[in-house]
Structures are given as C-alpha cells and as structure tokens.
Amino acid sequence: MSEVKRAHNFNAGPAVLPLEVLQQAQAEMLDFNGTGMSIMEISHRSKDFEAVIQTAETNLRDLLNIPTNYKILFLQGGATLQFAMLPMNLRASGSADYVVTGVWGQSALKEAQKLGAARAAANTEKDGFTSLPTTLDADPNAAYLHFTSNETIHGVEFTSEPEAPSGVPLVCDASSDFISRPIDVSKYGLIYAGAQKNAGPSGVTIVIVREDLLERTPANLPIMLDYRKLAENQSLYNTPPSYSIYIVGLVFQWAKKLGGLAEIHKRNQEKAALVYKTIDESGGFYRGHAQTNARSLMNIPFRLPTEELETDFAKEATKQRLIGLKGHRSVGGIRASVYNALPLESAKALRDFMQEFQRTHG
Ligand code: PMP
Description:
With 362 residues, this protein is α/β, with parallel strands linked by helices. The chain is built from 9 helices and 14 strands. It is globular, with a radius of gyration of 21 Å. The structure holds 4'-deoxy-4'-aminopyridoxal-5'-phosphate (PMP).
C-alpha cells in the first residue's frame, strides 16, 4: 500500500485523530476480535462490546486518576445537550452560577436560564472574551458553579480551576481541552466533554459525575435526560453510539501508551509555544486574540493586518495542506487548533508557513 499523505489538520472539531488509532480501526474494521463482524455490526449487549466500553472507562479512570466515587457516562446529544441536562438534574429549585469567558459559556448560561434561575458569577464579554476573570461574584448558595475550561472560539483557557464557595460543586465544560493535561478530578462535581476534539469522533459526550450529586436528579425527568438512570444502566439503557465509544476507547489507549496526561501536556505546551512564539516575534504582523496569561494550549485565534491578508493566508495554507485555519465567524481571522493528536511536525509546518507568509506579504 502506498504511504498515506495526511493533511496538517488544524480543524477545531471534529478534528485530527491519532494516526495509530485510525490504523487500528482500519485493521479491525472487517473482523473485530475474531467475530467476523465490525464493531458496528454487533449488539451493544454482547460481551465484545461490553469489553470495549468497560476498557474505555477503565483507561479513562487511569488517565485522569478518577476517584471511585465518580461515575463515567457515555451519552449522546453533544455538549450542547449537557447545557440543559446539567441544570435539569443538579439545580432542583435553586439557582446556578456561570463563569462566562466566551461564547460557549454564554450558551450554557442561556440554556440554563430557559429552565430556571441562573446567573453570571463573572463575564468577560466587555473585553471581547480575551481574558480570565480575576474575581468572582459567586453565590454561596448556588446549586453549582459552571465554567468552560477552554473557550474553543476565543482561545481562552483556565490554567487552574476557579474557586467555588464552600459546598458549591464545581462543574466544567471541558469539551475542547479534555484529557489535554492532568487535572485533580476530586475538585469537581461534574465534568462533561463532547468527544470530537481530543477524545474521538463526534457522537459521544463523556460525563464524569460525583455519585452523591446523582441524588439530586428529580424523579420526573425523561429517561434520556436522567443522569441517575443512565448511570444505573452503565450508559446502556438504550443503544449507545457504539462506534464512537470504540474509537474513544482507542484514543484513551493511545494516550496511555504515550505516557499519560503529563507527557501529553508537555507535548501540547511545546506545540502551542511554537505558534505563540511566531506570533510574538512577528513585530505585530500577527496579533493573538487572548491576553498572554489566558492563552489556550488548544485553540490559537489570531489576526493579520487586514481581512484580505487573512483570506489569502487561509487560502495559501490550504494549498500547502494546512487545513482548517479559517477563524470562527464570530471572531474572524485565523484559528489554529492544536489538539493532542496534532503531530509536532504539523505545528512546525504552521510556524514555517507563518514566517514565510509574513516574509512575502509583510
Ligand atoms: N462547549 C465547547 C467548549 C465547545 O467547543 C463546543 C463545540 N465546539 C460545545 C460546547 C458544543 O459541543 P457539541 O457540538 O458537542 O454540542
């Protein structure tokens, strides 16, 4: 077979997956584990699929060092469904707090407000979502305090958790920096993440929830919105997105084999530094969106002197197989997403392209 020529994939999500994972999925496609069938063609109640979902869970527990009093759920509906499921399950008749540092946090807050009381404990919109809040106006009686660890569009990432008032569970939308670095799960009440950035393909959303919080779930929720019911059934109440879960499991295995999250974090720092250094040394030709202390290791939005140059940049990059660099429509400019599975060579290729583009257009 001729060697595959992979693109330098800077897509924001769905995004680059590890080559080894794709190759293993390819090798197992026609005959999974000697069954003579693909994993897509077998029952979610079979012992083969049960092993897949259980191994995925065990490997995620290892990777994130998840304490035993947390449940792991593999759900559908994307992170967006969690914006609604979370308050439905955890808020009861109280009010919930949100730290808003970008469009995703704002969307989570708006969705929660449709269903009950929710407020912003901080909101950095006035500075164009370029920063992290320095103080919180947190409600000590809130049902939970929600934050978005990495704002995918604005490229703003928390390096440590915001402090919730004593007794208020911390809830995190970790969709775009999930398993990108070690975190202390015991600080959290609940973490959720759509898989399609760091953890796998779209179609599955991972929820890690402290067991005692499941007691808050009201009795009258529809089953598919009921964390407690879904947890009691090990995410197998109904047919789960089995292929997505299988790939997520392969990604967890890959991450462990690389050396775990400390090693992955180190690699992510190295890749992001290549791009930020190029921005900082460009004499203002490239301008990063986020303030330096809020810079994301996952998504790097930046501007060029004119929109015409930005259009040319994305076009010329695509010709050289640097894909997915056009910024989100709400921020404009360029965005490079440099997730776990992006090879170092791709970050180097972007740096070289940026330097060359500035030399020829600056
Ligand atoms: N939260 C964040 C931080 C995101 O980046 C995204 C998707 N880009 C979402 C939520 C929404 O995720 P989904 O498309 O899985 O509903």
